[in-house]
Amino acid sequence: MADEFPALRANEYRDAWCGQVLPDRVGSEARVSGWVHRRRDHGGLIFIDLRDRTGLVQLVFDPEDAAAEVIELAHKLRAEDVLSASGPVVKREPETVNPKMPTGEVEVRVSEAKLLADAETPPFEIESFSGEVSEDTRLRYRYLDLRRDRMREAIELRHRVTRSMREFLCGEGFLEIETPVLTRSTPEGARDFLVPSRQQRGSFYALPQSPQLFKQLLMVGGFERYFQIARCFRDEDLRADRQLDFTQLDIEMSFVDVEDVIGLNERMLAAVLAAGGVEVELPMRRILYDEAISRYGSDKPDLRFGLELVEITEVFRESEFKAFRGAIEGGGVVRALNAGKRELSRSELDGLVDEAQELGAKGLVWAVVEDGGWRSPVAKFLSESEVGAADEALGASDGDVLLVVADEPLLSAEVLGELRRRLGERLGLISDGANELAWIVDWPLLGWAHDEQRWNPHNHPFTSPAGVFDPDDPGSARAKAYDVVWNGWEIGGGSIRISDPEEQRKVFAAIGIDEGQAEQRFGFLLDALTYGAPPHGGIAYGLDRMVALLHGADSIRDVIAFPKAASGLDPMTGAPAPVDELQLRELGLRSRGKRGAGKEDGEGKES
Predict the structure, then answer these.
(1) Nearest CA to 58 among 1, 106, 127, 126?
(2) How many Cβ atoms from other residues are within 10 Å of residue 570's Cβ?
(3) Is the pLDDT assigned to residue 2 strictly greater than 60?
(4) Are strands 225-233 and 175-176 parallel, antiparallel or unpaired?
(5) Residues 538, 251: Cα–Cα separation, whole Å
(6) CA distance 48 to 56
(7) Which of 8, 277, 357, 459 is deepest in the core (most CB within 10 A)?
(8) Does the pLDDT value for residue 502 go beyond 90?
(9) pLDDT tens for each residue of 159-172
């Protein structure tokens, strides 16, 4: 808003913001500078709407007020030209007042004007931008895209959110401390970006996936309360909520338990989201991890609508239908969701089967409840008692559409969970402006990776187990971990850390990092923990995701000034790009791949 801007010190270009030429300036002179937003020629009079960050002001070029050369300039002006103009501020005639503009009651009668920059015709209209312009074009000319109100509002919102984070945390005794961007490669859940060393040929720095280890070292160093608005880097496939380089609010605290971290962060979230106009009801809802998977099929459930999953394994344990019974006998489960009374065609229902298989399920059974029975391709294989028991478990009645998956426990939940999310969007089940935040707590410490035949940490290997960790039964361990989810997006995650070096070694061993590897990769951390490490824990938030949700954007690309395209390319700068052979030789490297831009093919939680 215009009243957020301080008064300008007058110079040769301007003495007022465009959006601050308000009725209280009537009778005074004003000099403004900005971009030509639109131009209207009304015969003898020329009207220009001039734009800067604060808004628009109307300029009037009248041959009775200005010299001939000023009027001549006005005739030549085009959209996006950069102009400085001055003249008296006057009230508009009542019939020309524009109530939609803060400056709509006044105008500047131009007496002097100077063209500061002549603009080429933009590749798309700034004023009336529509979604018909491709994202690639928007990113290629991002500096023009940023001139649009929607993008300007996003960047201003991002600033307010970041400022509110700093203000809250500084008020709670936190210190803002920077950590290195060039560090060593450590396994933290995604591929590292590597930076070759010129001085130590054959060795590489890694860009940080997060400041995880450094913030723990800061706790050992006695700083007790740390935060950072940190740049992080992960070499992973991009999607709506991921970028190769992203921004994270990183927080760490000493002498705390789970309740301390959650309590402070709930108050911070309330303060930060209020800066974007969202009210957070405290205390926030908490959902156990196992409950989230069982009811919603996701560890980041969208709580704005129902369609909850129900396990109906016992209904079909003795079924003659081989697909259900076979899955159960193989250790799987049968899950279902009631999509409610829907008019879906046979092709739409069969399409859901295809989607389930694309998501990894062996198949999906659909059924429409009719006269107490099921209209379904598998109805003839099911008994009346099975259908009746399933209807009762699902609260189903005539007209309801049921979706059933029989498969491995986690896979069946995840497949139905993703279908639930898609149906919520397709069926219009999400109310405009609805916001649902919750904590996901009581996570498993480790998960079994079937393809690798090993245990992997759910979050990162520095998360503290809840209770005594049994190396002989690592799968039973729970974690002192917590995530914040908002409208189906994970916006933050953290944990209490391991502060005992021996326990850290046990967890390393459980995930396949032996003593030698532990010393090689994490010896500096293990050494630090031997010098008096306090109990500590923290959390990291995806700043881009938070701002995107506040702004109502579908992708974090719409709230980042200069993002990458979905392919990972930067259409504006051409990055990534080949480098000179001399640069490679200095680094002791040689290019073996095809040189060129490559083909186009397609944050939050701590590492």
Answers:
(1) 106
(2) 19
(3) no
(4) parallel
(5) 5
(6) 10
(7) 459
(8) yes
(9) 999 999 999 999 99
Q: Cα 201 to chain center, whole Å?
A: 37
What is the secondary structure of 477-499 as a DSSP string?
Answer: -BBSEEEEEETTEEEEEEEEBP-
Torsions phi, psi of 264, nearest 5? -65, -40
Which of 491, 471, 474, 473 is CA-nearest to residue 482?
Answer: 491
Tokens 């008096």 label which residue?
532
| Contact between 273 and 265 (Cβ < 8 Å) | no
Q: Both tokens of residue 215?
A: 């913030």
Tens digit of pLDDT for each residue in 419-474?
999 999 999 999 888 999 999 999 999 998 888 889 999 889 999 999 999 999 99
* Three-class SS state of 513: coil
Calpha distance 604→586 (Å, rounded): 36
Q: Please give the angle made by the CA atoms of 200, 202 and 206, to the nearest 5 degrees.
A: 80
| Amino acid (1-letter code) at residue 398 | D
Task: Give the SS3 label for residue 165.
Answer: helix
Please report which helix (H) or strand (E) contains residue 155, including its range: helix 149-171
For residue 483, count other CB atoms closer than 10 A to its CB.
Answer: 26
Domain boundaries in the chain?
2-117, 151-288+438-560+577-586, 305-429
Q: Residue 459 has which token pair?
A: 């979050």
Residue 450 CA from chain centroid, whole number: 29
pLDDT at 452: 85
State the residue for tokens 């500061």.
116
Reading the block at residue 325, the tokens are: 């019974």
Give the integer Cα–Cα distance in Å for 344 and 403. Answer: 12
Q: Tell me the one-letter amino acid at 198.
A: R
Structure tokens at 273: 């989201």
Instruction: Specify the pairing of strand 225-233 against strand 373-375.
Output: unpaired
Q: Does domain 151-288+438-560+577-586 have CATH number 3.40.920.10?
A: no
Could you tell me if 315 and 309 are in contact, meaning their C-beta atoms sit under 8 angstroms apart?
Answer: no
Half-sphere exposure at residue 39, Cβ-oriented, CA atoms within 13 angstroms: 18
Assess contact for 540 and 250: CB atoms under 8 A.
yes
Closest to 207 in 3D by CA, of 184, 230, 229: 184
Read off the pLDDT of residues 175-199 as tens digits, 9 standing for 90 and up: 999 999 999 987 656 899 999 999 9
Distance CA 317, CA 300 (A): 30
User: Closest by alpha carbon to 364, among 326, 297, 415?
Assistant: 415
- CATH dotted code for 2-117: 2.40.50.140
Strands 106-109 and 55-61: what pairing? parallel
Q: With beta carbons less than 8 A apart as the criterion, state whether 458 and 444 touch.
A: yes
CATH fold group of domain 305-429: Gyrase A; domain 2 (3.30.1360)
What's the predicted TM-score (pTM) here? 0.91
Q: Which H or E run contains 219?
A: helix 212-220
